[in-house]
Amino acid sequence: MGYExxxxxxxxxxxxxxxKLKRALxxxxxxxxxxxxxxxxxxxxxxxxxxxxxxxxxxxIENLDRYLLMLEENVKKAGGHVHWAGDGEEACAIIIExxxxxxxxxxxxxxxxxxxxxxxxxxxxxxxxxxVETDLGEYIIQLAGEHxxxxxxxxxxxxxxxxxxxxxxxxxxxxxxxPEELTKVARERMRSxxxxxxxxxxxxxxxxxxxxxxxxxxxxGNARLTTTVPRIHVALAGxxxxxxxxxxxxxxxxxxxxxxxxxxxxxxxxxITGPRRKTDKDGPEEFHLVLLDNGRSGILAxxxxxxxxxxxxxxxxxxxxxxxxxxxxHSYGWVYSGPIGAIINPQLLGIDKAxxxxxxxxxxxxxxxxxxxxxxxxRVLLELRHEVKESKAEKGKGLELFIERLSFxxxxxxxxxxxxxxxxSSLMYHLQxxxxxxxxxxxSLPYPLSRWTQDRDFPAIAGxxxxxxxxxxxxxxxxxxxxxxx
Amino acid sequence: MRVYLFVTxxxxxxxxxxxxxxxxxxxxxxxxxxxxRAQTCCGQPAFNSGYREDARxxxxxxxxxxxxxxxxxxxxxxxxxxxxxxxxTMLKVYYKELLANYxxxxxxxxxxxxxxxxxxxxxxxxxxxxxxxARYDGIVTYHDSCHLLRELGIKDEPRRLIEAxxxxxxxxxxxHDACCGFGGxxxxxxxxxxxxxxxxxxxxxxxSGADTVVSSDMGCLMxxxxxxxxxxxxxxxxxxxxxxxQTGSERG
Lengths: 486, 252
Ligand code: SF4
Fold this sequence. Notes:
heterodimer, A: alpha/beta, 6-stranded parallel β-sheet, 4-stranded mixed β-sheet, B: alpha/beta, Rossmann fold, 4-stranded parallel β-sheet, 52% helix, binds iron/sulfur cluster
């Protein structure tokens, strides 16, 4: 798909100035974070559970081919259809084809990051098929024509007032200030959509290889309706959503609910194995599972970054990330944001589309602390940074990149030659004089350090570096004996 | 017991007082301190920026300088101590990554990393001392440097050292473990984001009512200190080694 190159620097700089966004982000990340911290501390051996989750994911991803075939076989056995989509366009084409064959004019959708990823709504619309989001957050951003800014709370960037205005403008209703009233309006609209829709489209939180079961977690009940009321149910799932055994679900459902929202369990957990059986009272007549690659097999092939595929999309890394907390989801330029976005957007889109993202982190590691599958973010980010520099990903940055490369080469020469290192630091000491400000520190420096000194003072180089003080120091401690008060 | 100081390039060049602080404290504890003069940098700036080949050249040099120093020492109890959680992380965690395809270097690295400690970790876990005989009359809060806390898992050690200082009142700040926004080149690649993270840190420091903020990394402290001085906020910035070197006679 024709994505422009992601511009994190410009977008994030805009975002940090947005006071409304700032408040919304602090609120939501604080709320999710404390809920998650509480919920995880209630479970004895939480860290062991995370380690187990990681182990299982690792084994699954390493044997993905085998598990995928097992999944396909078992979905078919249960009477479902399985489709393989190499990329987003293919996924959309498959889904549109299913709709056409069945003369479907309108579809309802439950929340799914995969459908956001392939821009299914746009494709459906272009094919003349009406698609309505039924998750409240997704409904809001669909009305607004925006992208989700958080994995589990797509409309977190919107305030209550924003939503009231949006509803009034787009739905032609009076301004409603109470969230309950807004929810009621949305519900009423959706009810008729559910009844008219010829097809329900969902994502999948997990796909169980052993049984061919699709598992969907949610809190609003809309996904259950989406997957049962219309005649056809299509689930779109990334190939990494697979888990081997039905028995693994209790672990992953616990990890997901507690990490995502701090709930013991999500309000609705739907287990879907094939279409309606003769004995079932309800359910769709047809069930289709579309398995999406869209760059995932590329990640699989990269041993160093493969663990990016362990993610179960709980959003905990976003809520714990000090960068996400400031810049919000849209700065990451694509559907995935926060730490997980910083590592998978460049890998799924191609590193040349998002070469800045692996650098959009202070490497503080707070994400790794909470990730239920213990993705080692700093290590993966560092690996990707290396790949960016080794590739042609930044070729647009000609001169800047050239200067950077040269600087590191120069630095390397300096710090591998002690005498040169000493001489340069003494030279710099003298050169800094005109930049000295109050208290001796440096108030304004030329580019690139101007980017520091714009809002912060920079420390001055010491007149006598430690190496030059050492001899004297050594004499002093040598003479005075032990345990003196120096 | 002998310690080879790795003061880090930042301390050597900008903050030699931190190195002096380490020397004073270690000497007080009866440790024989040495400074291998050929040392410069560990290579972290290049590694974190994706320039692994440059980083490797610098790392190779570090390994040979400190490898030779260790060889010279006849003391069984010989260590390398460094006043930075971040540089200690580079040595103890990321050198393995950087040198993964260089088995020869990896062998030498083994002997170095198992003797390498961050300063507060060394005091508490090797010298087994929390009270290093310091005195400081002030209200102190502590900023957890990310790498020390989350890569090396060191949280209580600096606090135990701080709390044992005479005359000092310790106050934990809100969000003490939140990143200050430094992140090495991150701070100049994305200055607006970095500073907005820093804003929140400064609020927490001021909110604690402390007159001195202490940390274990000059990277964080030059970031925090740079904002405090720019904004004329009268909170002192001190590396833990400088704090522990205080005897109470410094003021007036
Ligand atoms: S990377 Fe980990 S913490 Fe982040 S969304 Fe995925 S599972 Fe959750």
